[in-house]
Specification:
Strand order of the largest sheet: 3-4-2-1-5-6
Bound molecules: 3-methylbut-3-enyl trihydrogen diphosphate, magnesium ion
Strand content: 5-15%
Mean pLDDT: 97
Order of helices and strands: EHHEHEHEHHEEH
Helix content: 40-55%
Largest sheet: 6 strands, parallel
């Protein structure tokens, strides 16, 4: 498959799911599935950038994922530590700017530093923006935005009736990002799992049974081909 004569969605969001099922299928511990998932993510950052995607936003760890076992959360934190450093190299080599969405203060100090170094070290890159959603939850993001607005209005004495969608959106973690055009979910579940609840209002959905560690360039091209067959209406008439 080739991407010639296809419209490349400007912003692709991904729910990378299925690391656990991949591990089960290969009869290895779940942590190995997450490691394989991180390796796929590394490859996909370069592939998405080469494909001409401008914004690539991946769900790496949700506000609900803390409910998993201590062992699994610990393994995920270790991977986060390791891959932050690797991602800095990959992003720098590919002119990719990295942003983080989610609430980072719940992480250990060294992980927070890893995130800050990654964001700071790539902020002047002019190629694709790679957005990593960690300790991210759509509801949590909306509540934090509401808090910010309330505090701002309380301090300034502004009239709350003047709040509109644009002002609300400017308080979200995604403030400077366009809304996603295409959402890809791997491993077949037909749900959002608290991802980008505000931003996905008019996004096209593509769900594949492919498990995230098996996701590759060919799978991305299939998703983009499916996107090209969609007729986007945004509530209007064509
Ligand atoms: C996705 O893989 C990665 C994270 C949520 C951290 P899962 O761990 O959810 O994999 P499955 O759904 O159990 O297969
Ligand atoms: C969504 O996957 C979160 C991430 C991919 C980081 P989950 O595996 O946590 O979602 P559910 O539990 O199947 O809804
Ligand atoms: Mg899952």
């Amino acid at each position: 498959m080739s991407l010639e004569n296809t419209v490349i969605p400007e912003h692709v969001a991904v729910i990378l799911d299925g690391n656990g099922r991949w591990a089960k299928k290969h009869k290895v511990p779940r942590a190995m599935g997450h490691k394989a998932g991180c390796e796929t993510l590394e490859r996909m950052v370069r592939i998405a950038s080469d494909a001409g995607i401008k914004y690539f936003t991946v769900y790496g760890f949700s506000t609900e994922n803390w409910k998993r076992s201590v062992e699994e959360v610990g393994a995920l934190m270790q991977l986060l530590r390791f891959y932050m450093v690797r991602l800095l190299k990959i992003a720098s080599a590919n002119n990719v700017r990295v942003k983080m969405i989610g609430e980072k203060t719940r992480f250990a100090p060294d992980i927070i530093k890893g995130i800050d170094d990654l964001v700071e070290g790539t902020k002047d890159n002019t190629g694709m923006t790679f957005v990593i959603a960690i300790n991210y939850g759509g509801r949590d993001e909306i509540v934090r935005a509401a808090r910010r607005l309330v505090n701002d209005y309380r301090e300034s004495g502004k009239d709350a009736d003047s709040i509109d969608e644009a002002e609300f959106a400017s308080c979200l973690d995604t403030a400077e990002l366009p809304d996603p055009d295409l959402l890809i979910r791997t491993s077949g579940e037909l749900r959002l799992s608290n991802y980008l609840l505000w931003q996905l209002a008019y996004t096209e959905f593509y769900v594949t049974d492919c498990l995230w560690p098996d996701f590759n360039k060919d799978e991305l091209e299939k998703a983009i081909a499916a996107y090209n067959k969609r007729e986007r209406r945004f509530g209007g008439r064509v």
